[in-house]
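Suppose a colleague, Dr. K., hands you the sequence of a protein chain of 83 amino acids and asks what its three-dimensional shape might be. Before reaching for any lab equipment, you can write down a predicted structure in token form. Begin with the sequence itself:
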Amino acid sequence: MLRWACGWTRPDRVRNEDIRSAMQTDPIQLKVREHRLRWYGHVLRRPQDHPIRTAMDFEAQGLFNTNQLNSEDYLRLAWTQGI
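The predicted structure, expressed as tokens, is then:
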């Protein structure tokens, strides 16, 4: 999207970091983290008996298999551990 807004195309071979600095924007990872923390603040302001608060404290049991990382087994994380 930023590349398009600047008028550059893939054949121009402009690096993503250069495009972000030209447009003075942050990397997407920072924006996602910022919005995740904002949502977490909204959840914490809900009453303790609200369903979203009980879902926040839920811990899944067992292991799951990831096909992307050599099919190793990983422990599931609670929602709050991913923040």
